């Protein structure tokens, strides 16, 4: 991790990188049982899988962050994360590796009031980056994966006393959730 203060300590940047080499990583793989590739469980057909050891896998990525105190009342921040994971021998993606994600925001603090305007971003995850075997829920994605999305959010907190506070929040102000519901397969009209 590299961290640096700038502007007399009013701004900070941070960079972190990581690399992990896993030996005998346990991964879920499709298999058969008594010649069958699936089994019915309580009326639902399920693919037969076993946990198997992969020879090696690698996970690596980085984080970059920035924050700054603009005035005594205003500050801002931005963060970016990237992670990549893959079995090295078979070039198969590891399960549960998120796509790129990031956030940025502007905060205001004054006399018991805290307000924040923020943006959250999640990058696209192509279907070829889903691990085989269903543990990544590729069946819930579109045929080519999950598209990128972002939300604009507004949150406020007012401290009425030391033990009582009032909070207000508007999440996803621009309504991107409607598009996300559509690509997750929920095609019914929204009233």
3D architecture notes:
The chain has 191 residues and is mainly beta. The protein contains 1 helix and 12 strands, in the order ββββββββββββα. The strands form 3 sheets. An 8-stranded antiparallel β-sheet has the order 1-2-5-6-7-8-11-12. A hairpin with a 2-residue loop joins strand 3 (38-41) and strand 4 (44-47). The longest helix is centred in the last third of the chain and has 8 residues, at 176-183. The model is unreliable at 185-191 (pLDDT under 50).
The arrangement of helices and strands along the chain is EEEEEEEEEEEEH
Average pLDDT level: 86
Compute the CA-based radius of gyration: 22 Å
Provide the structure class: mainly beta
C-alpha termini separation? 48 Å
Q: Which labels suit this protein?
A:
about 190 residues; mainly beta; eight-stranded antiparallel beta sheet; two-stranded antiparallel ribbon; 1 helix; about 5% helix
Task: Tell me the layout of helices and strands.
Layout (H helix, E strand, L loop, with lengths): L1 E5 L4 E20 L7 E4 L2 E4 L1 E21 L4 E14 L13 E10 L2 E10 L2 E2 L18 E2 L2 E11 L5 E6 L5 H8 L8
Antiparallel strand pairs: 1-2, 2-5, 3-4, 5-6, 6-7, 7-8, 8-11, 9-10, 11-12
In a few lines, what is going on in this structure?
It is built from one helix and twelve strands, in the order ββββββββββββα. It has 191 residues and is mostly beta strands.
């Amino acid at each position: 991790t590299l961290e640096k203060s700038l502007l007399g300590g009013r701004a900070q940047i941070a960079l972190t990188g990581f690399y992990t080499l896993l030996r005998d990583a346990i991964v879920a793989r499709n298999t058969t049982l008594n010649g069958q590739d699936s089994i019915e469980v309580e009326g639902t057909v399920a693919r037969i899988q076993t946990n198997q050891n992969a020879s090696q896998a690698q996970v690596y990525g980085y984080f970059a962050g920035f924050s700054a105190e603009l005035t005594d009342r205003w500050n801002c921040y931005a963060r970016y994360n990237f992670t990549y994971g893959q079995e090295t021998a078979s070039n198969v993606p590891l399960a549960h590796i998120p796509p790129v994600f990031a956030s940025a925001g502007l905060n205001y603090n004054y006399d018991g009031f805290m307000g924040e305007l923020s943006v959250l971003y999640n990058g696209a995850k192509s279907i070829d980056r889903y691990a085989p075997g269903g543990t990544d829920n590729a069946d819930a994605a579109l045929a080519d994966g999950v598209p990128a999305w972002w939300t604009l959010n507004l949150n406020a907190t007012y401290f009425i006393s030391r033990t009582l506070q009032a909070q207000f929040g508007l999440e996803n102000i621009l309504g991107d959730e409607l598009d996300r519901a559509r690509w997750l397969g929920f095609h019914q009209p929204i009233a």
